[in-house]
Sequence to fold (358 residues):
Amino acid sequence: MERVYNFSPGPSQLALPVLEKAQKDLLCYGDTGMSVMEMSHRSKMYTDIYDKAVADIRDLMKIGEEYDVLFLQGGATQQFSAVPLNLMVNRKADYIDSGNFAHLAAEEAKRYGEVSVVASSREDVYTYVPDVKAIQYHDDADYLHITQNNTIYGTRYTELPVCKAPIVCDASSMILSEEMDVSRYGVIYAGAQKNIGPSGLCLLIARKDLIGKAMDICPKLLNWEVQAKAGSMYNTPNTWGIYLAGLTFQWLKEIGGVQAIEKVNIEKAALLYDFLDNSKLFRATAEKKYRSRMNVTFVTGDADKDAAFVKAAAAEGLVNLKGHRSVGGMRASIYNAMPVEGVKKLVDFMKRFEAANA
Ligand SMILES: *Cc1c(COP(=O)(O)O)cnc(C)c1O
Fold:
């Protein structure tokens, strides 16, 4: 059985060297005589793995000492609740609604305080990101929440909002794909299953002065202060997930870090969008200015042709190209682990499909 090019939005393709290393270590990690999955999270052998993962992500993203880095559980969605529970001191927050995850985050926060959706592209089926310069932000908001890449609709922020409140960013589908100036954010969080590792894990980068303000009702496990004091180990963490995240960080460092992968990501996205812009059959759905580099959404305009395309592509080893059930069409998710070669194969197949079906 050969490996396919997996364009899944998440869980998504992992880098092959990461999987190979994990396979090599599966039964016996180093000279420990056991698998990483079988180690105590308090043992030296495991805390070394943990510490290295934290050091490597700090290095990759140039995260300053004024930030804590935590590996939490419950994916990104758990943070939709944890964010307001930890930050809503004045019970007020601004949210930009730029996609379905952004919407879900705002809806969840409403359970805990006054949420102002200061801008939304919902009425326009999220084909763009609201203009951050045209927004009235609230100076007394505890934070502004953004979703920097909209996984389902294939859009991304091209500039960051400038506001008084700290920015809290769901970076699930773009973290490590491009350079981020961490100092411009209060909190960055990301579910792991797109650019980091397996699902269930969530990376949290939070400015230390924002930690320690949780509401009394905040469950202990969601309390960032509790988790920061315990080094992400208030309870047993997702030890295997953190190990794989660490391998991904090492792989990324070996190939030149975020700056290098960003160049590759720009190249991959350009290959697809350039083809789409000149296609007689396919059309990209996101507004040009806001096109995502990670999730490329497109349609033929004919649902039957879309379905035929997805099926025929799968037969060629190009799988999971179906768009999200809420929007239809196609979506090629081309995260860090997708090689240029995979995108070239896809464009090549699209050309052939077009010639036969336009
Ligand atoms: C995938 C994704 C989520 C959901 O992540 P879970 O780990 O399933 O909770 C949230 N936000 C964004 C932007 C995503 O891409």
